[in-house]
Amino acid sequence: MDNRSGIGVFDSGVGGLTVAAEIMDQLPKEKIIYFGDTARVPYGGKSKETVTRYTEQIIRFLLSKDVKALVVACNTMSALALDTVEKGLSIPIIGVIKPGAKTAVNTTRNGKIGVIATESTINSGLYPGYIKELDSTVEVVGKACPLLCPLVEEGMIEDPVTDEMVRRYLAVLKEKEIDTLILGCTHYPLLKNTIGRIIGDKVNLVNPAYETANGLKELLLSKGLLNDDNEVKEHEFYVSDSAKKFSAFASTILHKKNIRAKTVNIE
Q1: Does one domain contain both 85 and 105?
Q2: Per-residue pLDDT tens for 94-125?
C-alpha cells in the first residue's frame, strides 16, 4: 500500500469537517478525501440497517479513490455501523467514539460524565459501555439532542434559536453536576462556544474530533502508513447534494480559500 495515498474521512454532512480540521493540523502531510452525505443528513433518527447501508455505500466510493485508511467522522455511523463495515476491510478504519470515551475517563474528577449526541448514538449505549469498561465506577448521563445537527447544517451556529435549544438540552446534565461533557456528535464542536458558556466553565468539554485525529496518527504510525512526502497536498471534497453550500461552509471551518466540493451519486 502506498503511504502517499489519501485518507478517507466521511460524515453525514458538515460535522466531519471538525475531524478533518484536526487531521490537517496534526498530520499536515496527509491528503484528505472527504465525503459528506448532505442529501441524507441527519442520520440521528435513522435505523441501524439504514445507517449501515449508507455507510457501506460511502466506503465503496472512498475505496474507489484508493485511500489507505478510513475515518468514520460521525458518531452515529461509529455507533451503528462500524462493527459491521470493518469486517473484510483490507485497510485500517477508526471511529470517533472510543477516543472520546477514553479521554473523558482520564479527564473526570468527580466520576460524572455527560454525553450529548444524536438519538441513535445515545440509544446504542456505546459511550456508557466503553466508559464502564475503562472505569466501572463512573456515572454516565446521556442526552439526545436531535435538533442540534440540523441547526448546524443550516449554518445557525450563532443564533438565538440554537442558544435556546442548547439551554434546554443541557438542563438535565447541569442538574446531575457532571464535570466532563463529551460532544458526542462531530457537529457539536462547531457549537463549542455556546455549549461551554451554557454548561459553565467548571465542566470540561471533550472533543472527540481532536482525540480521533490523534488516534489516527498512532494507527498510521503502527501500520507504517504515515506519509513522509513534503509535496503540498490538494484535499478532495465530495458531497451527495448542494456542493456550493458545502464549499462555502467548509472554507469557513477549515480556513481555506477556494474549496470546491463535487456532487456525486453513491447509491
Answers
A1: no
A2: 999 999 999 999 999 999 999 999 999 999 99
Same domain, 91 and 221: yes
List beta partners, residue 117: 144
Q: Has 145 been annotated as catalytic?
A: no
Q: Would you say residue 249 lies in a domain? A: yes
Q: Please indicate whether residue 149 is annotated as part of the active site.
A: no
From the list 74, 149, 173, 199, the catalytic residue is 74
Mean pLDDT value of segment 68-95: 96
Is the domain of 74 the same as that of 154?
no
- Tell me, yes or no, whether 141 and 214 share the same domain: no
Of 113, 112, 117, nearest to 96 by C-alpha is 117
Last residue of a domain, one of 208, 227, 242: 208
What are the pLDDT digits (tens) for 119-172? 999 999 999 999 999 999 999 999 999 999 999 999 999 999 999 999 999 999
Residue 24 DSSP label? H
In contact, 109 and 179? CB cutoff 8 Å: yes
Domain membership of residue 112 as a residue range: 97-208
**Tell me: the pLDDT tens digits for 209-258?**
999 999 999 999 999 999 988 887 899 999 999 899 999 999 999 988 88
Do 101 and 204 belong to one domain? yes
Residue 1 lies in a domain: no
Residue-wise over 83-120: b if at least 16 C-beta within 10 A, else e? eebbeeeebbbbbbbbbbbbbbbeebeeebbbbbbbbb
Helices 17-26 + 243-254 axis angle, to 10? 40
| Model-wide pTM > 0.85 | yes
Catalytic residue among 19, 73, 185, 213: 185
Share of the chain above pLDDT 90, in %: 93
Distance CA 185, CA 78 (A): 10
